[in-house]
Amino acid sequence: MKPRSFDYHRPKTIAEAVEALAQHGDDARILAGGQSLIPMLNFRLLEPVALIDIRHVPELDHIRLDGDMLEVGAAVTQNRLLAWPDLARHVPLLAVAMPWVGHFQTRNRGTVCGSIAHADPSSEIPLSLAMLEGEVVLQSPRGRRVLKASEFQTGMLSTARDSDEMIVAARFPTTFTGKAAFREVARRHGDYAIVAVGALRLPGGEALVGIGGASDRPVVRRFRLDGGDLGAELDALAWELETYEDLHASPRMRRDLVRRLAPTVISELRS
């Protein structure tokens, strides 16, 4: 199928992009990498009046350290962030999670912030942002506001972004520098994860564990690596999850995958 006709805007500045978005509101969509948006347009799951292409806005094309945050602009592709030479040192969780995102070809076009905006519960980047307690920077004609990851993603494919707001950057804390591990189960490598699990070693013998794909948004918990019955705690967490059913898995299968993946990922922190 082909998308319905729409107006195409190619702003050169954030101000121009925000102005176009404010003009059309709910009838507009932001185009960055287009890896999720274009298929939805072709299947006519979305029928916007206007597309606002932000790929050519220089202000959005940056990867920079800002205090204890790594800020990634909305035009930065996933492969560009993955190739950033200091990624493993500053945000090790992203360094191990990003290779699971799609395929090399899709990462060449797909953007970091586009994945966050799409808010798929099985996506690796929103899961990493939630685990690290990162931030999303939004801009509208009213100015800028910053939302925590837990505030931004409100459910499956839904966020707290207002219709006249656009994401201008995502911020990942650089304070979580312990050993990280990431695994997921999908029908094929690069497909959306049925269940994804990330883990990060914290000071004081704790592990931060994040689960994607099992609920309508990422789930993050802390566990002690020493003492207690970690297996029983992970099993209890799996059965507490509000899992869902789709063509790929039943709720029980998703819980079982959590029970199998989580111990494996945590064991990598000990090696």
Question: What does this molecule look like?
Answer:
The chain has 271 residues and is an alpha+beta fold. The chain has 3 domains: 7-53, Uridine Diphospho-n-acetylenolpyruvylglucosamine Reductase, domain 2, CATH 3.30.43.10; 60-173, Uridine Diphospho-n-acetylenolpyruvylglucosamine Reductase, domain 3, CATH 3.30.465; 180-270, CO dehydrogenase flavoprotein, C-terminal domain (Enolase-like, domain 1, 2-Layer Sandwich). Helix content is 32%, strand content 27%. The chain has 11 helices and 14 strands. It has helices spanning 14-24, 37-42, 78-82, 87-90, 92-97, 104-109, 112-118, 124-131, 149-152, 230-240, 251-270; strands at 7-9, 28-31, 50-53, 63-66, 69-73, 135-140, 143-148, 153-155, 158-159, 166-173, 180-185, 195-202, 206-212, 219-224. It has a 5-stranded antiparallel β-sheet. A 4-stranded antiparallel β-sheet has the order 11-12-13-14, sandwiched between helices. Strands 1-3-2 form a 3-stranded parallel β-sheet, with helices on one face. A hairpin with a 3-residue loop joins strand 12 (195-202) and strand 13 (206-212). Helix 10 packs antiparallel against helix 11. It is globular and about 60 Å long. The termini are far apart. The model has no long low-confidence stretch (mean pLDDT 95).
